[in-house]
Structure prediction request, 636 residues.
Amino acid sequence: MFFKEIHIRMRIILLFSCLLFILVVFRVFYIQMFEYKKLNTLASALWSRNLPIEAKRGIIYDRNGIILADNITTTSLVLIPNQIKDKKKVSYELAKILGVTEEEMDRHINKKVSIERVHPEGRRLDYKTADKINALNFEGVYLVKESKRYYPYDDYLSHVIGFVGIDNQGLSGLELQYDKYLMGENGAIKYFSDAKGERLKMAEVYQQPQAGINVMLTIDHNIQTSIERELDNIVAKYNPDNALIIVMDPNNGEILGMSSRPNFSPNNYQQYTVEEINRNLPIWATYEPGSTFKIITLAAALQEKKVDLHKDTFYDKGSVQVENARIRCWKAGGHGHQTFLEVVENSCNPGFVELGQRVGKESLFSYIDKFGFGKKTGIDLNGEGTGIIFKIDRVGPVELATTSFGQGVSVTPIQQIVAVSAAINGGNLYQPYIVKRLLEPETNSIVEENSKTLVRQVIDENTSMQVRYALESVVSKGTGRPSYIDSYRVGGKTGTAQKVKDGVYMVGNYILSFIGFLPADDPQVVVYVAIDHPKGVVQYGGVVAAPIAKNVLNDCITTLKIEKREGGTEMEYNWMDKKYFDIPNVIGMNKEDAIKELKSFQIEWTGSGKIIIEQSPSGGERIQEGSKVRLLLGEN
Prediction:
């Protein structure tokens, strides 16, 4: 009996031992097969150290490959506290070089971490400071290369591009919107240390950083330069509360240029407030559009066949009564008897009230919605506004009347230019965009490409053609004459919108605007200019904004190689306008005869002799009266 019990116990012990052995074998197998990488990583973390190498952000280009946002190499300070032997001395020397207190540096040096990045005082050091630290040759003190964002044109296109913070992370504009593409992946220099943190004499492992994706914009550098120049001139001449300009291709939604004032320097973003940095006025600002909105009313009336521009007439006596509101024309006493084409040319408010009433509130507000007002356009920038449009059940006769000429509604500049583009391009509303391509950083091969996105067709081609015709007439005969460019067929519309504060219209405080395009028969570019409360000038969009738009359009002609066009409506000059003339060919004439032929121009003489042997511009070219003609004198 006794031996039997011993035998049973031995069998139990043997069984238990076998199970334990199997369990150990299974555990070893599990660790080797499933947890090896995890445990190896944890073990490696105990004796390996990584000195970070920051990746370069993707470069931002204009549409022609001009760099708008680049990187420069800088140096940053990294400490390995366990390797620093004389902590007091190191703290004293580094504090002196970096211009901080020893107490601040002590906190970094005595921190219980394996690696301490000295932030922010040790980040993005200049070469002079880095050389001083390097000359100390302290153990545990390392200088690592870092990439710093650099904007070669500084405040140029600042709200669109945005800026990055000290950690190279996008904080506004495209830098924020496309941060996940631009950022890249950081690398490191890996080395090994013992339990005390002492560096071991083993080979270092270099993990190469991966640069971010490059971004190519739809922006054209030359057009953007024109915009920035004109905005600077606006500020210097008129001291406005703010100003903005947008240039767009009406046939696909590509933004060719966009900027505003005030702007900021992304290279020195710390000097600006959050509001100054984040307020990208062309997509964020909302205000009453004024008469540029009349283009929408005109398009709706033409599409619904409620008006014939040549046959239908309207008598403007200076005002019109709508219920208990008297709506006045900008011209005291009114324009008298007009065709509706002249109503458009003269920007006559009572005439547009009549058009709005003909279309009706349901139909007009349906077109306003189709043209994209009251909602975001979907442009690939953050911070876009929506504007404010009357709800249809709150629209009475007065609201219908004021909306017809752009008062009482609130829109964004980007909505304005997108809607007008649809009105003149054949009726197609396109989603605007500013990023053209994403490019692989090594080869610049295309990773992703944006293309035009048709939102909807709003009006038909015949209606669009009539809108273009009417707006060309505005420039050649009406309020938009200061934007006229001879031989290039410009169309456009002026706007003078009274500003509202606390629900009351302000006295003498206006937003002056102009939206123009060319060529009028086949639009290739559209420009929108808005100036908020310019000082010391007559408050009319045609007087202030139209000439600025003309300057930008002239630069677009050169940049986009837009050719001259024949036909169109002839300029109707008044006594203040400078006329255009064909230059006579005076080569071969004597000096006296040439002076008679060129009496409408300034003459600049060079050379000696009695006969004109060369002239510039050449005979037959068309220029504005008073322009300079250079003549070279010689013998036969």
In short: The first strand starts at residue 48 and ends at 53. The radius of gyration is 35 Å.
